[in-house]
Amino acid sequence: MPKVVTGVFADLERVLLSAEQIQTRVASMAAELNRVFAGRTVSVVALMDGALFFVADLLRHLEMPVRLYTLSASSYQGGTTSSGEVRMNWPAGLDFKGADVLLLDDILDTGLTLSVLRDKIAAQQPATLRTGVLLAKKRERVREVVVEDVGFEIEDEFVVGYGMDYQGRFRNLPCIGILNPA
User: Fold this and answer.
1) Which of 75, 91, 114, 167 is paired with 3 by a 20 to 30 Å CA distance?
2) CATH number at residue 128
3) Domain count of the chain?
């Protein structure tokens, strides 16, 4: 008898990455970061809300002192494509001069949001600046951006789950999937 799919999973065309695949890769990424940042305190800058699950899971595996800063920044304003304009909230007094900074985001798509934030942090003269994303789409970028740590490369499809949403829905899925076009 076929399994009946209900709830938010019914809205998926297919699962792209299972919860197990994601957790294995996040642990692997953290192991590399533990090697790179051994013995140092790291200022983690996390882009919310999409990177919430990724960052929380990654931080649980880090073995060095961490200072966590969360920023809201996006070039998506409720749709499935970038608006071309980055909106962000940068708290007054936020300064990374001389710090070891790890910038984390859920997905590298056009490169616009990450490049703007990376440039803003780099202008503050951190000791080091490293960028990591869970997903990187195989596509041409609007702006090129240096990303040292990539969890998975995926095709240029709109994905949801594991923190990523469509109009505020699907963030709570433990997997990453492609929405059913219907």
Assistant:
1) 167
2) 3.40.50.2020
3) 1
For 163-174, write each residue's pLDDT tens digit.
Answer: 999 988 999 999
Q: What is the pLDDT of residues 120-151, one digit of tens each?
A: 999 999 999 999 999 999 999 999 999 999 99
**Residue 168 domain flag:** no
In terms of Cβ atoms closer than 10 Å to its own Cβ (0-12, 13-18, 19+), residue 138 is exposed
Domain interval for residue 32: 21-154
100, 105, 106, 109: which one is catalytic? 109
- The predicted-structure confidence for 84-98, as pLDDT tens digits, reads as follows 677 777 777 889 999
> Which amino acid would we find at residue 66?
V
In sequence order, what are the residues at sequence separation of 6 or more whose Cβ sits closer than 8 angstroms to the Cβ of residue 99?
Answer: 43, 67, 126, 127
